[in-house]
Structures are given as structure tokens and as C-alpha cells.
Design a protein that fits this description.
single chain; 306 residues; alpha+beta; seven-stranded antiparallel beta sheet; four-stranded antiparallel beta sheet; 7 helices; 24% helix; 33% strand; Chalcone_isomerase_bundle_sf
């Protein structure tokens, strides 16, 4: 049976689409082309004998009522919720933020401060995008963590050549992300776990992404990977744990971990140009582990480079 949306409803916060086909959720995503959009998606199977939804869906800002329509052709309706309002990011000067200055990652509801002060960084860093990491088990996607990228605001001054570019153009331009990486100014990726994860499992997944990107690891690379592994080995990572991966330059990163707020000291310093570059490529290269994060960063940069 051909998969087709039978109803689209839009609101200020999200769009809703109902489907009459009970194909797997994975097939539905592919068939509707949602994978091409830089927006987070949730799929919810609703057992119904009516073409409609529960009488209303509400959130703090919206209440939408749906018409009911009888049908005997199917027993399930699949609803597709797509947030339509991505966070807006702006570069703030140090001291300009307040406790209310946060950006919420919409798929996980994790809030990120728009300004970050980390030990080892020469200045405050500004948030330019958020996203989430999802692992697929069978056909079900399970969110593991939310992530936000912070940069030294001076990096924006080096990106004049990309002014006026669209988000899509920025996302596809690896040279822009290479320039951000090469800039001798701090960049920090904040990871916030949204479920309990064993430290070894977290590292194994990260290493599986880093190692193939290092074609011929040398002794320095092996030492750096070993030091990286030791941070997470035999360490339970609870929901809500903060992990900061901070690039000081193109060959050095600081690792910070905290169970309660911004850490006061770093856990370790990793020094290897191959490892630091590969780690950056894991998140911001052509095949990122979190497409939603790179898409959000591209949106943020497009709004800044006007």
C-alpha cells in the first residue's frame, strides 16, 4: 500500500501529519523524506478506529483541535510531530547574559546556556547550535544525549567570506568547518546525557567513530586514544552528566566531566593533531554522528553571517 499523508496540521510550535499506513517507522521516515530536513522528528503510533486524533493536543502555547472522521480501512494512525521553531542563536559579549539566557534543544528539552565559561579557556564562549545523538535499535531510535557547540566569538570575524550564505550552503561547505577547526581559538562541544550510559559503552561508540578517520595512527595518536579511553573506562555516566570536549587549538583538547553544573577543573588534556581533527570531523564533517547538531549550527551561522 502506498504511504501518503492524509492530513497536515500546522501550529506555532509544530506540524502534525497523520498516516493511514502501518509500515515500520523507519520506512515512514524514508518515504516522507523527513531525513532530508534539519528538524527533529518524533513518531507516535496511535491506536484509533477513527481518522483523527485524541480530541486535542496541547502544550503550554498551543491547543489544537482535530476533526474526527470515520473510516473502516485501518486500525492505526501514525502521527508525525515536527518542531517548526528552531532556537535562534546570537553572539553575546561576556557579562551580557543573565540566568534566563538558555536555548532549549527541542528533541530532548535539554537547556543550554547561551554563554559558557570553562576552565582553561581564555574567554567566554557563545552557543551557536544544538542537536541530539540517537542510536537505532531494530527500527526504534533511542536518544542518548543532547549536544551544543560553543565558540570563541572572535571566530565569527574570520568567516566574512561566507556572509549571505544560506544554512544549506553552509552545511555543505566543509571548508567553513575546517576554518573553524583551524582557528587558534577555543571551541567546546557540551554533551548532556539524557539516559544512563556505561562509560565503556560511551567510549567504544566514540572510538568506533574516531579510529577509522585516522588512517595510520602513530605513537602519539595511540597514547592520546589510550588517555581518552581511560577517562571513561569503568565509569558509570548518569543521566544529566555534562561532558565537555574543548579544542584549544588544532592539536590539543581538554576533557571536562561533571555531574553537577559547569566543572571547575578539566579531567585530562589530549594532545594529538590526528585525534583532535578526527574528533571534530565526527561531529562536524561530511558524515556527522548528529545531523541535527550540524544543521542547527549551520542555521546559527547563517543568522550570524548576514
Amino acid at each position: 500500500m502506498r504511504l501518503a499523508p492524509v492530513k497536515w496540521i500546522e501550529s506555532e510550535r509544530f506540524e502534525v501529519c497523520f498516516f493511514t499506513d502501518s509500515r515500520t517507522l523507519k520506512e515512514m521516515i524514508v518515504a516522507t523524506g523527513i531525513g532530508a530536513f534539519p528538524r527533529s522528528v518524533s513518531l507516535l503510533p496511535l491506536p484509533h478506529n477513527n481518522f483523527g486524533s485524541p480530541h486535542s493536543i496541547s502544550n503550554p502555547r498551543n491547543r489544537i483541535r482535530f476533526p474526527e472522521r470515520k473510516s473502516s480501512n485501518f486500525n492505526f494512525i501514525f502521527s508525525l510531530f515536527i518542531p517548526t521553531n528552531p532556537p535562534f542563536f546570537s553572539i553575546k559579549a561576556a557579562g551580557a547574559s543573565s540566568s534566563s539566557d538558555y536555548a532549549e534543544e527541542p528533541a530532548t528539552n535539554v537547556k543550554f546556556p547561551t554563554l559558557l565559561n570553562l576552565p582553561g579557556c581564555s574567554s567566554s564562549l557563545s552557543l551557536i547550535g544544538t542537536g541530539f545523538r540517537e542510536k537505532v535499535f531494530a527500527i526504534i531510535g533511542v536518544k542518548v544525549y543532547a549536544a551544543g557547540l560553543y565558540i570563541n566569538p572572535k571566530i565569527i570575524d574570520k568567516l566574512d567570506a561566507w556572509k549571505g550564505r544560506t544554512s544549506a550552503q553552509i552545511q555543505d561547505d566543509s571548508s567553513l568547518f575546517d576554518l573553524i577547526y583551524q582557528a587558534p581559538l577555543e571551541k567546546s562541544l557540551q554533551i548532556v546525557l539524557v539516559r544512563d550510559v556505561d562509560g565503556k559503552t560511551f567510549w567504544d561508540a566514540l572510538n568506533d567513530a574516531i579510529s577509522p578517520r585516522i588512517k595510520s595512527p602513530n605513537a602519539i595518536d595511540e597514547t592520546a586514544l589510550s588517555d581518552f579511553r581511560d577517562i571513561f573506562q569503568n565509569r558509570p555516566l548518569k543521566k544529566g552528566t555534562f561532558i565537555f570536549l574543548t579544542w584549544l587549538d588544532s592539536s590539543k583538547i581538554l576533557i571536562h566531566l561533571s555531574n553537577e553544573g559547569i566543572p571547575s577543573t578539566s579531567e585530562a588534556t589530549i594532545e594529538s593533531e590526528n585525534v583532535t581533527r578526527s574528533l571534530f570531523d565526527v561531529f562536524f564533517g561530511r558524515d556527522p554522528v548528529s545531523p541535527s547538531l550540524k544543521a542547527s549550527i549551520s542555521n546559527g551561522l547563517a543568522s550570524l553571517l548576514i
